[in-house]
Design a protein that fits this description.
6% of the residues lie in helices and 25% in strands. It has 267 residues and is mostly beta strands. It binds magnesium ion. Magnesium ion is lined by residues 139-141, 149, 151-152, 251, 253.
Length: 267
């Protein structure tokens, strides 16, 4: 009987040290068992994972330049290879001195490719010739999956409703701060977007879309949840319906807002 008790105790203590699967302490494979080892008897290697190695990519020359795994959507020379108008035809937006400029009345432009979760870099500039006020001054927008707008607006000395100014998730979330540059100066958005998922109930999200936005390098949207597609009039929740990947869309709001250096990384 004593032998049995001793043997059981030995097995139990061994499982504590090495974990249930007995994999602990095997080079870099430690820490994978379901049972925690006794921390007082662990070695550093038991919690070090080596494989798979993290993918290696090349960074841009500056943090604004596309890294090697990015898809360049606009580099200053060509718009038609990656973008169309809303109907799939060549856009009437103009390229001038490397800038892609919205032409009033020509409608949105959208990427030919469709995306889900992504990291998106967009640089934009509102006109130095300041005209209009509130939502009428330097208005455009960056839509994720064709449905969710990150507002582009001249918000330098230009009050409007707080969740409609530059960097807002239009009519849902105001930016944390207003870090707008002057009209005529280039600004940047770095957007991290998590696409929603859908379950059997198609009128609500299983997991909602989430967005983080840096405006000119400053965090202005911190992983916020979207309630539904962007609406000018109406309650976003009422417009939820299942969707897959979608285009990145740039809005024509009647103002000659310019864009440059647009790139995206699929996540
Ligand atoms: Mg807009």
């Amino acid at each position: 009987m004593k032998k049995l008790i001793f043997f059981s105790a030995l097995v139990f203590s061994t499982s504590l040290i090495f974990g249930q699967g007995g994999q602990g302490g095997q080079g870099g494979q430690g820490g994978q068992s379901t049972r925690p080892a006794d921390p007082n008897r662990m070695t550093p290697g038991m919690t070090e994972k080596w494989d798979p190695e993290v993918p290696i990519i090349q960074p841009g020359v500056t943090n604004s330049d596309p890294p090697s795994d990015a898809i360049v959507l606009f580099n200053g020379t060509d718009v038609n290879s990656e973008w169309t108008d809303a109907r799939g035809n060549p856009t009437k937006w103009l390229i001038k001195d490397g800038e892609l400029v919205c032409v009033k009345g020509s409608g949105v432009i959208k990427t030919k490719r469709k995306f889900g979760s992504c990291q998106l870099h967009v640089e934009w500039k509102t006109p130095s010739d300041v005209q209009g006020e509130s939502q009428g001054r330097g208005n455009s927008g960056v839509y994720l999956q064709e449905l969710y707008e990150v507002q582009v607006l001249d918000s330098y000395n230009n009050r409007t409703y707080r969740h409609g100014q530059a960097g807002s998730l239009y009519k849902q979330h105001a930016p944390l701060v207003n870090v707008s540059r002057k009209p005529g100066e280039w600004q940047a958005y770095d957007i991290i977007y998590t696409a929603p998922t859908f379950g059997k109930d198609t009128t609500v999200y299983l997991t909602p879309p989430r967005i983080t936005v840096l405006h000119n390098g400053v965090l202005i949207q911190n992983n916020v949840i979207l309630r539904g597609p962007t609406q000018y009039i109406g309650i976003p929740e009422y417009f939820v319906k299942p969707h897959g990947p979608g285009s990145v869309v740039l809005q024509d709001h009647g103002n000659p807002v310019a864009y440059r250096n647009i790139w995206i990384r699929e996540l």
